[in-house]
């Protein structure tokens, strides 16, 4: 049998492992699932005869190297910064590698070695990055094949809670890493190009510059700008495109409410707060407010944020129990962002019967035979439960499908890459449709913008 080594058995690996086990007999593969927690790895095997769980410490060089040497192909579902040591061992042992993470500089430096050894190092093959690349390139290539010229490309994606599980005023629950949500948009101004003009949105204004999106059957959403929309301009062959914008999707009203945390300073991760372990939620809020001899924390909060007592924004703050003097943070040497994450986890954690939802939305503006046209492409994927979430499906399934495509010699191009070539994206997108990942394309009046 052929052996697939999966390193990391966390939330994103659930659907990946399920898919490969379902295919294991017909594909003649055996899974070796390695994780620091042997119990977690064993749980993910689900007692299947074609799976073996092993305890794997990624920092144990001998153990890691031995596990990789025995595999026919390696999947790394580790945090992005840990892929590189796995990748270097894959070069040594001449094994192809699949990850869902962005290509780092260190990973890119292995491109020549991967090509020299005829190895496929497929990265960015999850959801975003991943399905976004594949679904976008499919339409862009189709437009170019007809002789069209791209004028506009906008791409949006969001991990949300499904309508039936949408039970709080924020219309949001954590479906992925909470820390990434809290720190979203930090580290520099968002930048994009609009009608040929470069635009920048500083972090302090990011959540007040949103765009509305309507998805039939699911209502209206909003999107705020990603930090760097221009990252894939050359990769997609869109160097001359007039408008290029990428954003994150939320339900309408979320961004305005989230901006309250930004304005107070609660999302800052650059310094440690004193006595954070004994601080109450109420103390945390008060830390960002001016001193007043008589005004309560509630009054000071409303004054500084300029919100009335009957404003829905105020109800959203109350729902989080922010002014509770009896709830203790309990984190030593914590940053404001870490404390906010702890508070939000109390209210926004998916419950056992909750379901999540992925929404992806692309806009393609182009000119063909002197006429400006637009295609909108939309995808909504719903999770099954707390284990087989929409997030786990959309991250794990493309990884799994690509792995078998590489193992079976259908993806042959060697080197460090992302899935923007037809040999990669066409069969994967086709197979994803059977799992509910379906894009609906619709011709629209050209959106465009009027230049400033």
How would you sum up this structure, described in words?
The longest helix is centred in the last third of the chain and has 18 residues, at 390-407. This protein has helices at residues 14-27, 38-45, 61-69, 83-93, 105-108, 111-116, 131-145, 178-182, 254-264, 281-286, 297-305, 312-319, 336-348, 390-407, 422-432; strands at residues 2-7, 29-35, 51-55, 73-76, 96-99, 120-122, 149-161, 190-194, 197-201, 210-215, 219-225, 243-251, 356-368, 371-382, 415-417, 440-444. The mean pLDDT is 94. Helices cover 33% and strands 24% of the residues. It contains 15 helices and 16 strands. It has a 7-stranded parallel beta sheet with strand order 3-2-1-4-5-6-15, sandwiched between helices. With 452 residues, the chain is of the alpha/beta class. α1 packs parallel to α14 (390-407) and α14 (390-407) crosses α15 (422-432).
Key traits:
16 strands, alpha/beta, seven-stranded parallel beta sheet, 452 residues, 24% strand, single chain, seven-stranded mixed beta sheet, 15 helices
Terminal CA distance reads 62 Å
Overall 3D geometry?
globular
| Helix/strand structural class | alpha/beta
By oligomeric state, this entry counts as single chain
Please state the CA-atom Rg, rounded to the nearest Å. Answer: 23 Å
Strands across the major sheet, in which order? Answer: 3-2-1-4-5-6-15
Approximately how much beta-strand content do the residues carry?
Answer: 15-25%
Mean pLDDT: 94
Uncertain stretches: none
Count helical runs: 15
Can you give the helix content as a percent range? 25-40%
Query: Got a strand count?
Result: 16
**Major pleated sheet:** 7 strands, parallel
